[in-house]
Design the sequence.
């Protein structure tokens, strides 16, 4: 039987932090379904369809990954896909309380579903879609945070041409 994991999230947009979790999940599971939550964010920058298209583009060479959307209760979606495991990433301690609450609730109402947490890789510990959007909308260089296709999409959204950004220096 194939081991399938569902990796749910907003992915507005997908970052190297998400990609790292997906690649590491593939070392444990046969297949990963990246599940983009519909309507999870009131102020999303990208539409659900745009988010899906970007994930498909950056993962086009990974045959064991598929991209889907879901609405409603995550555990119902996970069961409907024949999976038993939800993958979530953990960065700072601040992620923990929220994730713990959701995982507890999901294990109570969907007893056959497990949530597995994967620690962020050290270089992505402070990387989030929100911070990438903040840097990009100020014309900062997001090369180290997102793949080129995502960078282009972000810069188009913010009305910048693609190539003339400010290099943000870390001091
Ligand atoms: P959500 O709104 O569901 O948190 P996100 O797209 O922000 O959606 O995140 C999806 C999942 O990916 C979450 O489990 C989040 O903790 C994880 N994640 C996001 N960025 C990183 C990162 N840099 N390192 C590890 N996990 C991450």
Sequence:
């Amino acid at each position: 039987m194939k081991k399938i994991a569902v990796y749910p999230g907003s992915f507005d947009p997908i970052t190297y932090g998400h990609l790292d979790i997906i690649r590491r999940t593939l070392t444990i599971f046969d297949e990963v379904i990246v599940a983009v939550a519909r309507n999870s964010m009131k102020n999303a920058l990208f539409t659900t369809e745009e988010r899906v298209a970007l994930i498909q583009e950056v993962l086009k060479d990974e045959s064991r990954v598929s991209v889907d959307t879901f609405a409603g209760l995550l555990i119902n979606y996970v069961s409907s896909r024949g999976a038993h495991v939800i993958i979530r990433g953990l960065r700072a301690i601040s992620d923990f309380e929220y994730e713990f609450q959701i995982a507890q609730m999901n294990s109570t109402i969907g007893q056959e579903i497990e949530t597995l947490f994967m620690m962020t890789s050290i270089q992505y510990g402070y990387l989030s879609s929100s911070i990438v959007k903040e840097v990009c909308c100020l014309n900062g260089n997001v090369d180290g945070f997102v793949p080129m296709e995502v960078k282009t999409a972000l810069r188009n959204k913010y009305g910048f041409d693609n190539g003339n950004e400010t290099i943000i220096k870390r001091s």
Observations:
- The pocket of adenosine-5'-diphosphate is lined by residues 9-11, 15, 17-18, 21, 40, 88-89, 91, 95, 120, 124, 127-129 (CB under 6 Å).
- The chain has a mean pLDDT of 92.
- The two ends are 51 Å apart (CA to CA).
